[in-house]
Amino acid sequence: MATIYIDNQPYVVKDGQNLLRACLSLGFNLPYFCWHPAMNSVGACRQCAVKQFKDEKDTKGRIVMACMTLAADGTRISIDDPEVRRFRAGVIEFLMVNHPHDCPVCDEGGECHLQDMTVMTGHNYRRFRFRKRTHRNQELGPLVNHEMNRCIACYRCLRFYRDYAGGRDFDVFQWHNYVYFGRQSDGVLENEFSGNLVEVCPTGVFTDKTLKGHYTRKWDLQTAPSICVHCGLGCNTIPGERYGILRRIRNRYHREVNGYFLCDRGRYGYEFVNSPRRIRQPIFRSERSGAAQPVEKQAALEQAAKILGSGERVIGIGSSRASLEANFALRTLVGADRFYRGLAEAECRLLDTAIALLRDGPAPAASMSDAAQSDAVLVLGEDLTNTAPMLAYSVRQSTLQREIGLTKRLHVSWWDDAAIRQALQERRGPLYIATPAATKLDDVATEVYRAAPDDLVRFAQALAHALGAEIPPVSALPRKLAALADVVAEALYLARRPVVVCGTSSGSESLLRAAGNVAWALSAAEHRGQLCLVLPDCNSFGLGLLGGGSLADACRAIQEGKAETVVVLENDLSRHADQAALKLLDEVRHLVALDYLEHATTAAAELVFPAATFAEANGTLVNNEGRAQRSYQVFVPQGKTQASWRWLQEMMVAVGRQAEASWRSFDEITAALAEALPIFAAVKDIAPPEGFRMAGQRVPRQPHRYSGRTAMHAQADVHEPTPLADPDSPLSFSMEGSQRQPPPPLVPRFWAPGWNSMQAITRFQEEVNGPLRGGDSGRRLIEPQPDAAIRYFSDLPAEFEPRPDEWLLVPVDHIFGSEELSALSPGIAQLTPAPYLALSASDAAGANIQEGEKVVLAMDGLHQALPVRFLPSLPRGVAGLPVGLPGMMHVTLPGWAKLSKVTAS
Amino acid sequence: MAVIAELPDNVAVTKLDELVSWCRKNSLWPMPFATACCGIELMSTGASRHDIARFGAEVFRFSPRQCDLMIVAGRVVMKMMPVLQRIWQQMPEPKWCMAMGACASSGGVFDTYSVVQGIDRFVPVDMYVPGCPPRPEQLIQAIIDLQAKIQREGTLWGREFDAPSRQQPKRALQES
Amino acid sequence: MTANDPNTRQNPHDLPPTGESAAKGPAAAGKKIAWVREPELGMAGRSYLMLFLQGLRTTLRHLLSRKTTVQSPEQRHVVPDPLIYRGVHRLNRDAQGRVKCVACFLCATACPAHCIDIVPAESPWPDRQKYPQSFTIDELRCIFCGMCEEACPVQAIELTSLYDLSGKSREEMVFDKAKLLSVFDQTKDAEPMTKGTGTFFGLPVSNEGTPGPAEK
After folding, report:
1. Which of A9, A478, A579, A673 lies most in the core, judged by the most C-beta atoms within 10 Å?
2. Looking at chain C from residue 126 to 165, which residues have their Cβ under 8 Å from any Cβ of chain B?
């Protein structure tokens, strides 16, 4: 610890950090632009000037940049010195020379770092009387809006996009007064993290284009803490709503999970909530194929009671995108032995394997922050950018970790970003990627290995063997590959915090087990080997822990006559079941569905209940590391929509099972869940209960600047409606409540006096980049067994042999389109590729197939004609099939398929 | 018709209802329910510059039993509401109510739990006068408008209670 | 007796600064106390006759002086400067007859009664990004403080000198965009938009159009 003196007051700060960080951690208002908590210092904007004094006798001092000065023991600085205040005001006056001052029409207004800093420095009178320079704006695609005139050239966008997110299509052009940030020509920003430019940019150069489509001022948004539902990572978000329309998603800082950023799928996928395909009212079909009739709530519940009857021969199908509480309510309705997970058999097996690896082995689950701080990463079979985008971002950051250690001998501080990148040049730490096809992380990878899933397993097993796992050596491994395995093993062995990344998207259970072997072997060797497993959906882990059979088991039950009524919870079964299973479900006597969107299952259901989305109901989601996190209701939905667990509870009451469904509030069902299943005991403690109050008040969902409150509904009814009550959480649907900082799970927005932008985050952290005050939210439900005897898996498939007339189809994921809900957002839909089949150019040439040509894919009775696209990195005999795209059938991958060319007729 | 034509010029014939309405509208006795700053402007309206007596409404009475026009001038808090309702009920029929100023009409800036968000949630209001406070001319205009309304709706047969504007509105305390 | 004795506490500013003299009270501190006696009234004074006549004189003077009563509504109150008077709102139009508002929400945010509600939409015109699809003011909520006018960066919302507004229902007092624009049409001749030209933070502002970012 070091003692520094700020305006003659002593403060104790951590060693080795810079003055700006220290000052912000201590809660001082010191303006800055080019610094960002996640991106460290470059000293470019000259805004964080402070006066440094040699010792207590020094009265003259000299102006230094706080972000570039070490907070060494005994440092004496002044923030309030008149000269340095004038200096800062002068700097901002220069920055504002060309700024258009169009705050009233700027989307950023009210949440603008530049506005805040201008007010903070006291610059309020413009002396420059000449023409401003103007730029041409670029069209950057459906997600990000570009308004270059507002730029103050802090370079944060460029640093984030190129240095941190790894984008290549964005750069700085021109010189001095004409510096221009953009693409070489108009076009969609290619990087998957481009949405973060909106938050990284201190002013309105980059703004959210989806928000522009249904604009409202940012202080008029009703917000609540939420969890992203578009992949298994569980990033923390802040959705904002007005007039019943979800308007945008903003990042909510969580040190262990997503840090300061979100991927574009998470940020822009929210618009499915406003989709015209939403179900807003209970629907009843008197005949299964008949027309849907909207019915009243009570009539629908009576109908449900009639269908469910005594509860005999009723099965429930849960969902990996529904909350724990909803799945638990269904499980209670149908009984534990009649609850099925709504996943295909292969998906269930993969999920169980993944959870078992984390629960039974010694290797702990790695959070995203662990992955970012790791100094050696091995990725097995996952195209992270497309299956778990924010994890790809973390892994990209990890490649600097080992090398930053090497810069110590250059006496460069770790926060001196420009100097470190200058010293490192293109050197990156160990990152090994073994996947069937090329990934976007390959550019920072030390080595990549392309092979079919079976060969990946063989490689991973060889690696585990080299690390000392008690498994037989892999025979007949090509010499080059064996050498690579040795190199990777050495790199992992020498690392302080190695992380092995694998996941379910490859479809190979053996690969998961082999990844477990590698991580366990590292743990056994007294290394902190960590395992990071990517799961497909936002609550896959929770559903896995809840247990239950697969869809195939459900079909078996139907076939055996054990079930004639099926209740499907928030699940489009056509995404998980094959044609035969779907047909069987279609023919079942009664099909009851609860969901928020129309899809194949709700179209076939006899009775459909309108469920609430993540923004309209509370829920607990368990992310891929097993962390249970609470997501709160943002707004009260229109129509008859309510949370699935409420519908299920009311159904149970309707059939006369009040005693079992005694939960009336969210806290009660969470407590019931914790009691019924001990594994979820922690779930009820992850967030404050409904009765929690700060100074006797709730936490307001609306900020204190919320406008138009009394006139919002005036055209419908001049009488202002009664504020809505929230029986489920300590948040209120109004401006009323305590403005103090709530505990981390309840933080509805980041705002502090003088800090309206996202940068207010430093006021909510214990220290810069530390946890939020009150500790990290969420809690892990499973812990590793460090002392248990390791039982290595000895799966060893045979070497992959290309077949002459068949192709091994492997899944190809797409960040935009592979996920069900986000694909319905108009912005994301524009970026979603049309279904295709990927082949390597050489294979295609062998089969005499041209790019763009249509081929018919035949697999397990499935026929689909798809255009061919070349994916050069695919191994021989392997074809890629995009999964989950709209219009694609469900198939279990990897699997063998025949291809035939479509003839002209 | 012949009878009417034979009458001398200084005799007018009208319906009883219209005659009664004419009398009543020109002799409104206001009950000043002034709780705040609008009350000052209400007094000003009664003073000689604006002279509400020109419209026959100068007889401010402080007993509700003698009044037929309640002018609510100022914000009404929830605790005051029973008093206001009691006074309203003590006024003999036919009677009219005027919400003067933003607070009485809608709650105005006082959008809080303790202030009644418009007295129309508890008593039927015939005229609303916006402003904070309204000018005396505005109040006079409201009285003229009210007079027109009285003449139009009549007072003798109690038909005024059929008018939609006199229906008891939804009450706040019954809503949820 | 000390200065801190609650029964005899003096205004501390009246007390001399030193503790020595403060202990002796204000008289000792050099202040002189003058005792005033009630004047004795004579016969004329006690009969109040003079005062009575004085009062009558005032009444007579008022009887004969110019009448102060304003014969409203026939005789309208003349607003000294209609441009600064805060009456009913209007939404201004530009030279092409389009609403000038750019849907920036500053009026709605400045409004202390929260009585302005705007629903923005993407503008169909090239000179601005947004325009108000709907613009609602609850005139009964409004306290006519003029902060909306003050906040408006493009002089789109103004308060006119129309003062005699009253309504029979709350619904009719909720003014929508069409109504607010019609107020402009009624008052534009009497009250032109004098503030319409000039500069707004260095950007030229005129009635022909509204400032916005440079054209794309």
Report:
1. A673
2. 138-145, 163-165
